[in-house]
Write a structure and sequence with these properties.
alpha+beta; two-stranded antiparallel sheet; 14% strand
Length: 202
């Protein structure tokens, strides 16, 4: 049954082309905006659902605060390309949302391959904890703030809410496990292709 909301959420139909090197948050946002524009939704301001850890202060550096995915995407509600409600607001998005393989569509309204499909592309880059916040800086969880296509690792979620074990991490849309690396090959080997979640922030 079709919904009534205009598209304000999608999974990118493609990655950035360089693994987890997205050109930082700005490059990731630009990819969301580009794909949304091609799909006729470019009048909205699109943001990638990605977190970046901060930096500890030191003698020569004041440090910098973390960037949390949940703070980048507006207030909702968000709808997929078919007008189906994904989440009413930020709280609903992180507790009880309607994200599944059937609803987490790309900007063209197509389903994204899940764990049961070939190739498996259910790993979606997030760099985030389950509550949509960034990790502490000690461990690389964002492929060097989304600028590395070789060294490092990134946290991913499963848009199809399934994994190899019937445990909470396997069912998490935004916090499942770390990728095998940051290259395109490593992302594919782990079960993804470098796709992102995009949300309209206005």
């Amino acid at each position: 049954m079709p919904g009534s909301g205009s598209m304000s959420f999608f999974i990118t139909s493609t990655g950035g082309g360089k693994g987890a090197d997205l050109g930082g948050l700005a490059g990731a946002d630009a990819l969301c905006q580009k794909l949304a524009t091609a799909a006729g939704a470019g009048s909205k301001t699109w943001r990638a659902y990605l977190s970046v850890p901060g930096a500890f202060p030191s003698a020569n550096n004041p440090g910098k605060p973390s960037v949390n995915a949940r703070d980048r995407i507006g207030t909702g509600p968000w709808f997929n390309a078919k007008g189906e409600l994904i989440a009413r607001d930020v709280a609903h998005l992180h507790n009880g949302n309607n994200i599944s393989q059937a609803t987490a569509l790309d900007e063209k309204g197509n389903k994204v391959n899940g764990r049961a499909d070939k190739p498996n592309e259910h790993d979606i880059l997030t760099g985030s904890r389950a509550d949509g916040t960034a990790f502490a800086p000690q461990t690389d969880t964002t492929c060097r703030a989304w600028t590395s296509s070789n060294e490092g690792s990134a946290i991913v979620g499963h848009h199809d809410r399934t994994g190899p074990l019937p445990e909470n991490w396997a069912k998490s849309w935004n916090f499942s496990h770390q990728s095998a690396g940051c290259s395109q090959e490593a992302l594919v080997r782990t079960g993804g292709s470098g796709r992102l979640y995009c949300f309209a922030a206005n």
